[in-house]
Amino acid sequence: DTAVSQTPKYLVTQMGNDKSIKCEQNLGHDTMYWYKQDSKKFLKIMFSYNNKELIINETVPNRFSPKSPDKAHLNLHINSLELGDSAVYFCASSLTRRNNEQFFGPGTRLTVL
Amino acid sequence: KNQVEQSPQSLIILEGKNCTLQCNYTVSPFSNLRWYKQDTGRGPVSLTIMTFSENTKSNGRYTATLDADTKQSSLHITASQLSDSASYICVVRDNYGQNFVFGPGTRLSVLP
Fold first, then answer.
1. Beta strand A108-112 with A10-13: parallel, antiparallel or unpaired?
2. What is the C-alpha to C-alpha distance for residues A84 and A38, in angstroms, rounded to an integer?
3. What's the mean pLDDT in B11-36?
4. At residue B20, does pLDDT exceed 80?
5. How many A/B residue pairs have CB atoms within 8 Å?
6. Could you tell me if A42 lies within 8 Å of chain B, comparing CB atoms?
């Protein structure tokens, strides 16, 4: 069974479109994260949710809006996509907000044309 | 400013050889340091975690060291295998528990 899953794995879209990436974890973890990994392979945290509550919100354009319908899901919606949004987006989860072994999903490669 | 630096940026070695990757950090107050391995096209996977009181920890052919005084950590890989080709990322967490800083990673290539 996949621990942290993301869909889709690849996403190619035009500038200006709105898209969503879904993430689900079946580990029973309380905390979930979204990361962006750019072309230089640098991982940067974007958001963190603990039991559906937003706890980390780094400096991210408000075109990015996370939504957590329950603690097993953290979806990422992006409005008005821009070329600079092209990257690999990783979802991750950890048992608690203070237990920092994070389990990562396989990533979603977003390409904005 | 909390930062994590890693060196070298990339490394190429022959199969069977040993190598050591470095991580320097300025994160304070320090809580723990974790090494992740990221295979191409996949998410990072945790290799080992070091807390303030630990100097050395091994996980198979991987051995991590920590010097909390100089704020340095290393990851030593023994008898490298082709499957060790990956990026190795150092992540440091502060003592407040909520902030963690990722290093830029070291890209290791093991050649036959």
1. parallel
2. 9
3. 94
4. yes
5. 48
6. yes
Contact B75, B35 (CB under 8 A): yes
Is the minimum CB–CB distance between A40 and chain B shorter than 8 Å?
yes
Q: Which of residues 77-106 of B touch A (CB under 8 A)?
A: 87, 89, 91, 93, 97-98, 100, 102, 104-105
Please tell me if residue A10 touches chain B, with a CB cutoff of 8 Å.
no
What digits encode the pLDDT tens for the residues A39-54? 877 888 898 998 888 8
CB within 8 Å: B44 and A97: no
pLDDT at A30 over 70: yes
- Listing DSSP states for A19-46 in one string gives EEEEEEE-S--SEEEEEEE-TT--EEEE
Half-sphere exposure of B45 (CA within 13 A, CB side): 11
Length of chain A (residues):
113
Considering only residues B16 and A59, tell me which one the structure prediction assigns the higher pLDDT. B16
